[in-house]
Automatic annotation (TrEMBL):
The keyword Lipoprotein does not apply. Keywords: ATP-binding, Cell membrane, Membrane, Nucleotide-binding, Translocase, Transport. This is Cobalt transport protein ATP-binding subunit. Its main location: membrane. Pfam families: ABC_tran. InterPro entries: AAA+_ATPase, ABC_transporter-like_ATP-bd, ABC_transporter-like_CS, ABC_transpr_CbiO/EcfA_su, ECF_ABC_transporter_ATP-bd, P-loop_NTPase. The keyword Nucleotide-binding applies. GO terms for molecular function: ATP binding; ATP hydrolysis activity; ATPase-coupled transmembrane transporter activity. It is found in: Cell membrane. Belongs to the ABC transporter superfamily. Signal peptide: none annotated. GO terms for cellular component: ATP-binding cassette (ABC) transporter complex. It comes from the Bacteria.
Length: 247
């Protein structure tokens, strides 16, 4: 039996200034699951995500464990953990910095030791998966926002991660680009943790949602059921767009 793609056990964390950001968070995501992480600003979502690839944790103020595919997130495993946890940032400019799209997508797997025809094949596969194969030789600077978001996703896919972590993937996208990205994500068949304030996008992409507030998990269940709970949403400063009706 395969281990969970992600398991957080009693995860707690306080910053050096004494601010306690997480209080004993437990979360398990099975292989292939798509889960939305919801919550108001300041809930601890970013702090949680930064524990998944070892940017935070392992020092003073930290407690509990994080495992990715059965491998514990700790210093001696960080190189492999950072391959297994593919974080797609909200701003593509944080990930795209090479002269061409293909060079951007090749950067990650090359850093992990892939070379020659195997590297070219990995780049081609990642770009094809996001519908950007024709843009391989273009500059990322000349792409639309939606195209750059998909190329940023390809840079992560090229490393063949265990779990995709998506930080506000729909932000600043027009309706067509938003739909195109959703179609790509649904077609990947990958384990995903999507951090978002976009509740309709969470409903479209993630059958399960987890609500984090005040550094604790306050709800975990089917996305449609959580979004239908108006009292839950109001308590945790979450709100569906005006006029949006759950089908």
């Amino acid at each position: 039996m395969s281990p969970p793609s992600l398991r957080l056990t009693d995860l707690a964390f306080a910053y050096p200034d004494g601010h306690q950001a997480l209080f004993g968070v437990d979360l398990t995501i099975a292989p292939g699951e798509r889960v939305a992480l919801l919550g108001p600003n300041g809930a601890g979502k970013t702090t949680l995500v930064l524990h998944l690839n070892g940017i935070l944790g392992g020092g003073d103020g930290a407690a509990g464990t994080v495992e990715v595919g059965g491998l514990r997130v700790e210093k001696r495993h960080l190189r492999e953990i950072r391959r297994r946890v593919g974080i797609v940032f909200q701003d593509p400019d944080d990930q795209l910095f090479m002269p061409t799209v293909a060079e951007d997508v090749a950067f990650g797997p090359a850093n992990f030791g892939l070379r020659g025809p195997a590297l070219r094949e990995r780049v081609d596969e990642a770009l094809a998966a996001v519908g950007m194969a024709d843009a391989a030789d273009r500059s990322p600077l000349h792409l639309s926002g939606g195209q750059r978001r998909r190329v940023a996703l390809a840079t992560v896919l090229a490393c063949d991660p265990e779990i995709l972590v998506l930080d506000e993937p729909s932000s600043n996208l027009d309706p067509v680009a938003r739909r195109e990205l959703a179609e790509v994500l649904l077609g990947l068949g990958r384990t995903m943790l999507m951090v978002t304030h976009d509740l309709p996008y969470a409903l479209q992409l993630c059958p399960r949602s987890v609500v984090l507030d005040g550094g604790t998990v306050v709800a975990d269940g089917p996305t449609r059921e959580l979004l239908a709970d108006t009292e839950l949403l109001a308590r945790h400063r979450l709100e569906l767009p005006y006029g949006f009706v759950l089908a």
